[in-house]
Specification:
The protein has 543 residues and is α+β, with helices and mostly antiparallel strands. The protein contains 13 helices and 19 strands. Among the domains are: 145 residues, Alpha-Beta Complex (Dipeptide-binding Protein, domain 1); 226 residues, Dipeptide-binding Protein, Domain 3 (Dipeptide-binding Protein, domain 3, Roll). The radius of gyration is 23 Å and the shape is globular.
Length: 543
């Protein structure tokens, strides 16, 4: 799940030893001898996605798979490389106050668009496309997954065909990375201006882009095939074809890797990592990514709207046991949504695992244990549901463990899982608020700004606050952090906000992910990135 548009660039961390019986390094596929495996299809790279994107247009999807495929199809302002550095792409330079592209008062940001970039039909990409896309995001015609950040632009001035200036309603440090990887990239005005809405039109399944690859075929539920874009501004990619196979079952995926019918598994299921040493002709690497797994609470749920219930639940779940027993120890305990290696990190501690304290909290709040062992209050039985994607078998194991731990304190928990495209759809359970608890993964982006995830004004579809949480004091700190360019001030704001949220528990943080990647040893140029997508440099890949 992608909750927030503009988050942080987390610093790359060296992967630790992951599983004692696995040989895992931190190198990328760009080094090492060419092995010429007999199963290699030279010029064609076969990857996989567990969740099929519900759309190839990023503004209509919050899925990780959407970030991947749009990195192939569209050119963002900036991509983010394997060291988390912004790579100027559709624009030529990162705006700063030092280079004069951000005004002294922080209200004007100028972007220099790269001349010579064209859509795959040959039409030039210009300032008009940027302005058109901004209007499509904020004018209410389209059911975008969020508007946060874009709605803080008062207007976009067309300085010339290859330069635009954002005029902001207020200073907003994170707005530098709007229209970049992980957000909404510009779309072609010349093809789309004639439509009243961009949702559910033919373009959504057959887009014309300006990225390194073009769509050749999409067979729903099977695969999405891309061909090299000969008009790409960096030059024709080294691969002829990228075939992304949709394989939601992790066991099927592992079998496909072993049979060499696929070249890359980006995110090996943690329970299968020890078996990687049995697969010939692959290399394995690991990287700590700015992804955090968490358990969300729907704060407008009749039961979970009671903060005492949420406080009890976070104390009734043994998070360290979850990481160890379910996720193979391949994660670092998370406390807030700020990575421990970020400039904005703090020393806050999580609530301790304490079932006795959980029971006492529930007793004090009037939730009494009935004869069947389940609590009730005012005739309401403490029965909740937990949801995750049906393709994530480890999460389902975690659901079972969580259910057992909650039952021990008198809470009944049933599972209600969905296909990923349904769970994360704009009108799905999360964004529609039709769930109790959800076990999901967030991918961080380019700034610590997280008001769209927790702010009172950012309940869907104005933002990604799918917890439906609201605390004016938290809002105050997050808003102050938005408008400041001073790191110390912003760090203090985030710490103060999270002190409140750790007490009120709109979610339970679980871990920062260590991503394990297995790939054909013939692959070159594949450089996994700790933020947004590992597809950031697909034009350099070769096999």
């Amino acid at each position: 799940m992608r909750r927030v548009v503009m988050r942080r660039i987390a610093l790359l961390a060296a992967a630790t030893a992951l599983v004692s019986c696995s040989k895992i390094d931190t190198t990328t596929a760009s080094v090492g001898p060419r092995t010429a495996n007999p199963w290699t299809i030279h010029g064609t790279l076969r990857l996989s996605e567990a969740e099929e994107p519900n759309s190839l247009i990023r503004m209509f999807s919050n899925q990780a798979s959407a970030d991947d495929v749009t990195a192939l199809l569209f050119e963002p302002f900036f991509r983010f490389d394997d060291h988390e550095r912004p790579v100027p792409s559709l624009v030529t330079v990162v705006p700063t106050q030092q280079n004069g592209l951000i005004s002294g008062d922080g209200l004007r940001i100028t972007f220099k668009l790269r001349p010579g970039v064209v859509w795959s039909d040959g039409v030039p990409v210009t300032a008009d496309d940027v302005i058109f896309t901004w209007h499509a995001i904020v004018d209410g015609r389209n059911p975008v997954v969020y508007t946060q950040g874009y709605d803080q632009i008062q207007t976009i001035e067309r300085d010339n065909a290859h330069q635009v200036t954002f005029v902001l309603k207020k200073p907003l440090a994170a707005s530098v990375y709007l229209f970049s990887a992980g957000t909404f990239t510009p779309l072609p005005q010349h093809l789309l201006a004639k439509y009243a809405t961009l949702n559910n039109i033919g373009y959504d399944r057959a887009p014309i882009g300006d990225g390194p690859f073009v769509l050749k075929q999409w067979v729903s539920g099977q695969d999405i095939v891309f061909g090299a874009n000969p008009r790409y501004w960096r030059g024709k990619p080294k691969l002829d074809t990228i075939d992304i196979k949709i394989i939601p079952n992790v066991n099927t995926l592992f079998t496909t890797l072993k049979s060499h019918d696929i070249d890359v598994v980006d995110g090996v299921t943690k329970s299968l990592v020890p078996q990687l040493s049995t697969v010939a002709g692959i290399r394995v690497s690991a990287i700590m990514q700015a992804n955090y797994r968490h358990l969300d609470f729907n704060c407008k749920s009749p039961i979970l709207s009671d903060v005492a219930v949420r406080r009890a639940i976070v104390r009734a779940i043994d998070v360290n046991r979850l990481i160890r027993a379910v996720y193979g120890g391949l994660g670092v305990r998370a406390v807030t949504d700020i990575p421990p290696f970020s400039w904005a990190a703090n020393g806050l501690k999580p609530a301790p695992f304490d079932p006795a304290a959980a029971a006492q909290i529930l007793d004090a709040a009037g939730w009494r244990v009935a004869a069947d062992g389940i609590r009730a209050k005012n005739g309401v039985r403490m029965a909740l549901t937990i949801s995750t994607a049906t393709s994530n078998l480890l999460n389902q194991d975690a659901e079972a463990l969580i259910a057992a731990e909650l039952k021990a304190v008198g809470i009944e928990l049933d599972t209600k899982n969905y296909e990923g495209a349904v769970l994360f759809a704009p009108d799905g359970p999360l964004y529609g608020g039709h769930y109790d608890m959800a076990l999901i993964l967030n991918t961080e982006g380019t700034d610590p700004d997280d008001i769209a995830g927790f702010g009172c004004d950012y309940w869907p579809h104005h933002g990604s606050n799918t917890n439906f949480y609201c605390n004016p004091a938290v809002d105050g700190y997050l808003k102050d952090a938005q408008v400041s360019y001073d790191h110390a001030r912003r760090r203090a704001d985030y710490e103060a906000a999270w002190k409140i949220m750790l007490d009120e528990a709109p979610l339970l943080m679980i871990y920062w992910d260590q991503n394990v990647i297995a790939y054909n040893s013939d692959l070159r140029g594949f450089k996994p990135a700790p933020v947004i997508t590992d597809y950031w440099n697909a034009w350099e890949w070769q096999i």
